[in-house]
Design a protein that fits this description.
The two termini are 15 Å apart. The protein has an eight-stranded antiparallel barrel. The chain is built from one helix and nine strands, in the order ββββββββαβ. Strand 7 (122-137) and strand 8 form a beta hairpin. It has one helix at 157-160, and strands spanning 15-32, 40-43, 45-56, 61-77, 80-98, 103-117, 122-137, 142-154, 162-176. By secondary structure, the protein is mainly beta. Helix content is 2%, strand content 68%.
Length: 191
């Protein structure tokens, strides 16, 4: 008889999922306040991660919201040192394309509401978010993902000393609620 795989790359239609991710954050292309001169000893990498919740509408379209910690960027300048710590909430659409029964390639597009703190000030604002990833169904209910996420323009250099783009390469795990057992077609009746 015909059988469906016990695991599928994307969650089943009209179901919820939750997950978490952990990886390496990288700050890129800093644009500094004019007061900050003689920048040295930059540390643009840190551990980053987050948590997310999603709703899978159909096999190719989902919606995701979550919290991300983007890490800390530190540097010295002519008159001292500073740091930028960035975090925030994200909201976007997730567009997926199945590669096979257990593997899905996807992109997430949306916005990021950030909070950025320096040693002397803080800033909040909104930035664009884009991600590209692979999601592998380990079982019917559990999946893992490998993802690269980019967020543009975190921080305002007038308030926190610098504005940076953020990249996060992460590995994540998600649990998918309401996944029905695969249907097995009945065997044909003997002739």
């Amino acid at each position: 008889g015909l059988m469906m795989s016990a695991a599928q790359a994307d969650p089943q239609d009209n179901t919820w999922y939750v997950g978490g991710k952990l990886g390496m954050a990288q700050f890129m292309g800093p644009d500094y306040n004019a007061v900050l001169t003689g920048i040295t000893n930059e540390d643009k990498s840190d551990v980053g991660g987050g948590a997310f919740v999603g709703y899978q509408l159909n096999s190719w379209l989902g919606f995701e919201a979550g919290y991300d910690y983007l890490g800390k960027y530190t540097f010295d300048f002519a008159n001292g040192s500073d740091e930028l710590v960035a975090q925030g909430g994200q909201l976007g659409v997730k567009l997926g394309l199945p590669v096979n029964d257990a593997l899905d390639i996807y992109t997430r597009l949306g916005g990021f509401a950030y909070w950025a703190d320096s040693e002397n000030n803080s800033d909040d604002g909104y930035s664009p978010l884009a991600a590209l990833g692979l999601e592998y169904a380990m079982t019917r209910d559990w999946a893992t993902r490998l993802e690269y996420q980019w967020i543009g323009g975190v921080g305002d250099k007038q308030y926190v000393g610098s504005e940076v783009d953020s990249g996060l390469l992460s590995v994540g795990v998600s649990y998918r609620f309401g996944q029905a057992a695969p249907e097995v077609a009945p065997a044909p009746a003997p002739a």
